[in-house]
């Protein structure tokens, strides 16, 4: 039987011990990160231009699942854009009709008008190819231009909003760099595209995907105070008291009081890296990225970057001197290419070790035999996904790669817990726990469920990610508060959340037309069937 122990000699022991020390975050480090988070939250609420922007969204109130209506949503956030028709059924459920359209690299990096023309054409194609019979329940002609279909735009990039239907792009992320976009009003760019092409659609709301996750989870669960994305990127949005958003100054919204959803843009937390546990592998990734010294927190915890961190570590072990510590010193074209190692491979390695997904099967034999079988499964993943030659991957190699993947993902999950903890503490729902006797007396929502909506591939699919996030949260706020945190998946936040935002925009527009003050009340929100809205297409296919 092959020997499976990963540690052969002091060199490997020292290297792996060094990696363990660099990537393992103790509770003291978690507290330091969380306290820095709290400081940057306060800074972002009090002034503009902070890296963690704390953007007021002008979305006031949270749904409870009783809302009804049918709305369009346009979702731009990555490789695809999506046009959705969402019907809210009023019983915490919804129906969805959608179509995806590919966003090419040329569109991502070309002129912004070309990108938004493509967005408008895609909406037009959706309406033209399969017009719904349900749009007669959108919004009555008395409330909107009779020829316009209302639409909410989910725009998953940092935007400084000045109204529900107005926001200026701060910077591109996620590989986008379209020219002449930064500093421009995103809603105006889209509306201008609709108008240029004579497409009768009105963009009534601008929504961040994280805000959408919060609204969607609130709708399907009956309440939510935080929406968080842990996927390709990361971000959080939460319900804040308007009085605490002091940078709003004399904005009329302040006089109305109440609550507003704030988009934290926490991917840019601690860009100075004063609190983040940086390793040489993180520095290399940041230096070679398209946005060095920006989006620091995101580069530690999100799916876009974890694979690249692992690739840097693996290459350092292949290139170790005087003797290579992985694969006999052999690499592959895929490993040698920047971004060549996808985070999905890390997840697959951990699935293979845990016996999850396609690797699920009853374990037989002695513990040593079971371990060998697990490592052989990892060997298979590395051969297939890293394009390495089978003879170059020993069981020892498989074990080392498994440990590297686990260290990097565990660090990400534990750091993710600090973001959730900071919001709970900031909103008065938790205190940082000193490991003494815990009491919830005096806390907001004392003894009640705390709704947190999450979305993203890491939190949904990566093995043990959510479990480790919760363990981090428990260490920070204590077991009593952590046990009341209802961490649930947000169902299609970018579609359903946008529809809910369009609905809120409708109510706020009603209030503006009547010179009234809008206060969110779910009992008020029912869209009654009016006359049918016609779809006018400017495309010929």
Topology:
Elements: H1 10-23, H2 27-46, E1 55-56, E2 68-76, E3 80-89, E4 94-102, H3 105-109, H4 112-129, E5 149-155, E6 159-163, E7 166-169, H5 186-196, E8 201-207, H6 209-221, E9 226-230, E10 234-241, H7 252-256, E11 259-263, H8 280-288, H9 296-301, H10 303-318, H11 333-336, H12 343-354, H13 367-386, H14 395-426, E12 450-455, H15 457-461, H16 465-477, H17 479-484, E13 485-489, H18 493-513
Parallel strand pairs: 2-5, 5-8, 9-12, 12-13
Antiparallel strand pairs: 1-11, 2-3, 3-4, 6-7, 9-10, 10-11
Helix pairs in contact: 1-14, 2-14, 4-5, 6-18, 8-10, 10-12, 10-14, 12-13, 12-14, 13-14, 14-16
Give structural notes.
- The chain has 541 residues and is α/β, with parallel strands linked by helices.
- It is 43% helix and 15% strand.
- It is built from 18 helices and 13 strands.
- It has helices spanning 10-23, 27-46, 105-109, 112-129, 186-196, 209-221, 252-256, 280-288, 296-301, 303-318, 333-336, 343-354, 367-386, 395-426, 457-461, 465-477, 479-484, 493-513, and strands at residues 55-56, 68-76, 80-89, 94-102, 149-155, 159-163, 166-169, 201-207, 226-230, 234-241, 259-263, 450-455, 485-489.
- The strands form three sheets. It has a six-stranded mixed β-sheet, with helices on both faces.
- Strand 2 and strand 3 form a beta hairpin.
- Helix 12 crosses helix 14 and helix 13 crosses helix 14 (395-426).
- Mean pLDDT is 88; it is low at 1-8, 135-146 and 516-541.
């Amino acid at each position: 039987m092959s020997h499976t122990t990963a540690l052969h000699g002091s060199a490997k022991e020292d290297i792996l011990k060094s990696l363990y020390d660099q990537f393992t975050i103790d509770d003291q480090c978690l507290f330091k990160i969380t306290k820095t988070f709290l400081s940057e939250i306060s800074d972002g609420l009090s002034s503009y231009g902070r890296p963690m922007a704390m953007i007021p969204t002008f979305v006031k109130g949270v749904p409870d699942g009783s809302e009804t209506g049918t709305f369009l949503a346009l979702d731009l956030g990555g490789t695809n854009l999506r046009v959705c028709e969402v019907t809210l059924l009023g019983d915490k459920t919804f129906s969805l009709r959608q179509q995806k359209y590919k966003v090419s690299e040329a569109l991502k990096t070309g002129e912004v008008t070309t990108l938004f023309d493509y967005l408008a054409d895609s909406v037009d194609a959706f309406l033209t190819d399969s017009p719904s019979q349900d749009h007669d329940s959108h919004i009555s002609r008395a409330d909107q231009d009779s020829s316009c279909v209302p639409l909410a735009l989910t725009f998953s990039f940092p935007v400084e909003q000045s109204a529900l239907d107005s926001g200026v792009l701060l910077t591109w992320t996620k590989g986008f760099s379209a020219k002449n976009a930064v500093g421009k009003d995103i809603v105006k760019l889209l509306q201008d595209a609709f108008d240029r092409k004579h497409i009768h659609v009105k963009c009534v709301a601008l929504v961040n995907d994280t805000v959408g996750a919060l609204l969607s989870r609130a709708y399907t669960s009956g309440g939510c105070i935080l929406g968080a994305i842990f996927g390709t990127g990361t971000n959080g949005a939460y319900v804040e008291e308007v009085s605490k958003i002091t940078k709003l100054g004399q904005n009329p919204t302040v006089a109305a009081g109440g609550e507003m959803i704030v988009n934290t843009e926490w991917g840019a937390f601690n860009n100075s890296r004063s609190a983040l546990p940086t390793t040489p592998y993180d520095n290399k990734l940041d230096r070679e990225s398209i946005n060095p010294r920006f989006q620091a927190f995101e580069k530690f915890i999100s799916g876009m970057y974890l694979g690249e961190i692992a690739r840097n570590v693996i290459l350092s072990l292949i290139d170790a001197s005087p003797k290579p510590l992985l694969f006999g010193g052999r690499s592959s074209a895929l490993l040698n290419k920047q971004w060549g190692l996808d985070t999905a491979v890390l997840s697959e390695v951990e699935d293979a070790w845990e016996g999850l997904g396609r690797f699920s099967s009853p374990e037989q034999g002695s513990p040593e035999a079971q371990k060998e079988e697990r490592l052989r499964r990892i060997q298979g993943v590395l051969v297939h996904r890293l394009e390495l030659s089978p003879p170059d991957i020993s069981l020892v190699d498989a074990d080392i790669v498994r440990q590297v993947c686990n260290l990097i993902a565990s660090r990400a999950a534990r750091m993710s817990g600090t973001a959730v903890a900071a919001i709970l503490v900031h909103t008065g729902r938790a205190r940082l726990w000193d490991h003494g006797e815990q009491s919830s007396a005096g806390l907001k929502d004392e003894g009640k469920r705390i709704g947190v909506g999450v979305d993203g591939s890491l939190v949904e699919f990566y093995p043990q990610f959510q479990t480790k996030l919760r363990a981090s949260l428990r260490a920070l706020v204590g077991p009593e508060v952590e046990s009341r945190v209802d961490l649930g998946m947000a169902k299609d936040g970018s579609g359903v959340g946008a529809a809910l935002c369009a609905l809120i925009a409708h109510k706020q527009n009603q209030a503006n037309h009547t010179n009234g003050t809008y206060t969110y009340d779910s009992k008020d929100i029912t869209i009654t069937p009016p006359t049918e809205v016609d779809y006018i297409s400017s495309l010929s296919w």
